[in-house]
Write a structure and sequence with these properties.
The structure holds 2 protein chains of 2 kinds. Chain A contains 14 helices and 4 strands. By secondary structure, chain A is of the alpha+beta class. Among the domains of chain A are: 2-73, no CATH class; 125-248. The longest helix of chain A has 22 residues, at 141-162. The two termini of chain A are 26 Å apart. Chain B is globular, with a radius of gyration of 19 Å. Chain B is mainly α. Chain B has 11 helices and 2 strands. Chain B has one domain. The longest helix of chain B is centred in the middle third of the chain and has 32 residues, at 128-159. Chain B has helices at 9-36, 42-58, 69-86, 103-123, 128-159, 164-169, 176-179, 181-194, 218-243, 254-275, 281-309; strands at residues 3-4, 95-96. The chains are: A alpha+beta, B mainly alpha. The interface between A and B is large, with 39 and 34 residues.
Chain lengths: 298, 310
């Protein structure tokens, strides 16, 4: 692969060679780069100059030892620079510990591989009261409901921030903190009602999220609307005698194979623009402390 | 009606524009603090802003590997410079730095300069998120620019002039906003677009961890952030002579009317920022081209017919 690329064009030979030496090749060898090997050289030649400009140097220069972009076919059958990016594990409004290794052409994701860094795997903070109840410890229904409402608002805050609505995200997070801090139901319900009216009835948010990340449980819009419904139900049962039962994040249902959530993310983000991919990941919001999400076979 | 101000107005204009921008930032911070339960007393909000400005002034500038430093810095500085140059033709009451005969075109040219500046600021640091942010500005420009220009054309047609002072004079009996509401709305949307704030903040989107802002730190970040708000203030100030009759109004002096109207427009723009999430370009571009653009053309047709019949 490397030498095919490097030798086809003498004018750019040096530059290409050095570029590929700087490549982290171990990261790519597992990738299905079949399109790459079948490159017609003429097409390659045409794009060479663009590739050099991208890196800020001209021709022979190897800018700061950085790898040059590779070129592969894009979705329209053209040749386009391909760049390897790593999203996470530290990125604002990103699930803590999730690492998404993506190959992008422009701002469109071509390949994605989800990994995890950190994450205790000891169980999610949000499931803790229901786990204790399962072990037979005395837990009130209100305690479970409070944590569930907090969880939905936590996820909602992240999604709204990614959706570019910091004011609404701030409201969701404020209410989350107050709920976890013991805010009485009588005070929480009207505040949640305002948030639900504001966010749930936003036509722009609805238009911007409809049809994105379509999976078995619906799209991004369906997911945040379900969070709002869950939160309303949970807050309504804060004082109720009955337990709302074990309510979990939308994707990690009992019986789901380990790692299925990460696989779903990989499938959903391929072919999307970076901003859409961020919304999709935020709408799934995997909690890597949950052993069923972090564990991954293969 | 509108007359050239003395030479020292050149020094006053950036200060006035800065005051409007500061007010907009404070109002925006106040709304954000109230929404999220943070301290929202005026002193706390003012203190928070001063802390942030001081923090940026003392923190280090950032350089990145293999950056295009010249283009990067030019882009960052270009944003506030374009905003300040744009308001050279915007009258405050009776005063204006220079009431150019092609004032509308001058304003439009300065606004287009911000496309290039934001793109360069995104390209410069050799960083993927920043680069994507820069290109989003180009795509955004392609979506708002034509409706923006048709809105300006409607105003110029109605007044029969590209001179801002003459446009104000033509609104003595009726403000243009009354019979050109579509143009006014398109203009305000494009103000949010070229200052990449609020629903049109995708070039600096949270999904890109800040986009064109992601690699700028220290004083560079301050300059770029201030530039955005100066652009917003410049756009709001220009909406007043174009659609709201400039300094025309009963009782108060002309400059007071200009200030009041500008504050009103700026307030509406800041409120929009808090009421609406980011509008993604892939969904906005079709709307802009298929709905907004034809509407502004119809608006121009209306303006032309009215002028012919008058």
């Amino acid at each position: 692969m490397v030498h095919q690329d490097g030798n086809h064009d003498t004018a750019h030979d040096g530059g290409d060679h050095m570029g590929h030496q700087g490549d982290p090749h171990t990261a790519h060898q597992g990738d299905p780069h079949t399109a790459h090997q079948g490159d017609p050289h003429t097409a390659h030649h045409g794009m060479s100059d663009d590739g050099d400009d991208m890196a800020g140097g001209g021709g022979m220069e190897m800018p700061a030892g950085l790898a040059m972009a590779e070129r592969t076919e894009d979705r329209d059958g053209l040749k386009l620079d391909q760049l390897h990016l790593t999203l996470g594990p530290l990125l604002s409004e990103w699930p803590t510990g999730l690492v998404l290794r993506v190959a992008v052409q422009g701002d469109v994701i071509q390949q994605a591989r989800a990994e995890t860094v950190g994450g205790t795997g000891d169980g999610s903070f949000w499931d803790e009261p229901s786990e204790r109840a399962r072990r037979g410890e005395p837990v009130t229904g209100g305690e479970v409901a409070r944590r569930t409402a907090g969880h939905r608002l936590d996820s909602l805050g992240r999604l709204l921030e990614v959706a570019g609505w910091p004011a609404a995200a701030g409201s969701a997070r404020w209410l989350r903190d107050d709920l976890l801090g013991g805010l009485p139901a009588a005070l929480a319900a009207p505040r949640l009602g305002r948030l639900v009216r504001h966010v749930g009835r936003s036509r722009v948010l609805s238009q911007m999220t409809a049809g994105l990340g379509q999976a078995s449980d619906g799209d991004v819009r369906a997911r945040y609307r379900r969070w709002l419904d869950d939160a309303v139900r949970a807050v309504a049962s804060l004082n109720g005698p009955e337990s709302p039962g074990v309510v979990r994040a939308s994707f990690a249902r009992p019986g789901m194979p380990p790692g299925a959530v990460l696989e779903t993310i990989e499938q959903l983000v391929v072919g999307t623009e970076l901003g859409v991919a961020r919304l999709v990941v935020a709408s799934i919001d995997p909690d890597l402390d949950d052993p069923r999400i972090a564990a991954r076979h293969g | 009606m509108v007359e050239p101000a003395p030479w020292w107005a050149v020094l006053v204009v950036p200060a006035v524009l800065g005051a409007f921008a500061t007010g907009a930032v404070l109002a925006s911070r106040l709304l954000a603090a109230r929404a999220s339960g943070a301290p929202s007393r005026p002193r706390a909000v003012l203190g928070g802003m001063c802390d942030d400005v001081a923090g940026l002034l003392v923190s280090r500038r950032r350089t990145t590997l293999a950056s295009d430093l010249v283009l990067w810095r030019l882009g960052v500085v270009g944003v506030p410079v374009a905003a300040i140059l744009a308001v050279a033709v915007v009258p405050l009451g009776h005063w204006v730095v220079d009431d150019l005969r092609v004032g509308v075109v001058w304003f439009n040219a300065m606004e287009i300069l911000t496309w290039a500046a934001v793109w360069a600021a995104g390209w410069g640091p050799n960083s993927a998120f920043s680069l994507v942010g820069g290109y989003r500005m180009v795509a955004q420009g392609l979506s708002y620019e034509l409706p923006h220009m048709f809105a300006l054309i409607g105003v110029a047609t109605a007044a029969g002039s590209l001179q801002v002072g003459s446009i104000v004079a033509h609104q003595r009996h009726l403000w243009f906003v009354v019979w050109m509401p579509v143009g006014f709305a398109a203009f305000l949307l494009s103000v949010l677009g070229f200052s990449f704030i609020g629903p049109f903040d995708q070039p600096a989107g949270a999904d890109l961890a800040g986009g064109v802002l992601v690699e700028v730190a220290g004083v560079d970040r301050l300059v770029l952030a201030v530039g955005r708000w100066l652009l917003l203030a410049a756009g709001a100030a220009m909406a007043v002579p174009l659609f709201l009759g400039g300094g025309l109004g009963p009782g108060l002096p002309a400059w007071a009317w200009s200030v009041l109207k500008t504050v009103g427009v700026l307030g509406a723009l800041v409120a929009t920022r808090h009421l609406v999430p980011t509008v993604r370009l892939e969904r906005w571009a079709p709307l802009a081209w298929l709905v907004l653009l034809p509407l502004t053309i119809v608006q121009d047709l209306v303006a032309a017919v009215v002028v012919l019949l008058r």
